[in-house]
Amino acid sequence: QVQLVESGGGLVQPGGSLRPSCAASGSIVRMIVMGWYRQAPGKQRELVGRVFSGGSTNYVDSVKGRFTVSRDNAKNTLYLQMNSLKPEDTAVYYCRAWTGFYEYWGQGTQVTVSS
User: Fold this and answer.
1) How far is CA 48 from the centre of its chain?
2) With the CA atoms of 46, 32, 53 and 19 taken in that order, what torsion angle do they form, in degrees rounded to the nearest 10?
């Protein structure tokens, strides 16, 4: 069992930045993909961005150019750099890992963008 723990969410003003982290209890070297998802009230959970073990990434169109997903295998940590935040980015953000055999989810962290 791999535990994923997010941190770094919170309240920020529009145009601000935030960098949540997702710390894994074990090695993430063998994780095929690690990514961030979000769910706003009344909406479906959606993929925000993800990074594969080889280093490639992809993002939902609404965050391209503003968000960056990265992974630090030495620290067993996934990051989400969020810049130029907008009110519509407000959601609970979840960390996900896929090993090819198992799927793991974090508990989520609230990100609120408001003036």
Assistant:
1) 7
2) 40
Secondary structure letter of residue 43 according to DSSP: S
Average per-residue pLDDT for the chain: 96
Distance in angstroms (rounded) separating the CA atoms of residues 35 and 76: 13
60: its two tokens: 């939902």
Write the pLDDT tens digit of every residue in 34-67: 999 999 999 999 999 999 999 999 999 999 999 9
Q: Residue 92's beta-bridge partner residues?
A: 39, 110
How far apart CA 83 and CA 63 sit, in angstroms, is 9
Cα(114)–Cα(9) distance, integer angstroms:
13
Whether the CA torsion 14, 42, 59, 3 is positive or negative: it is positive
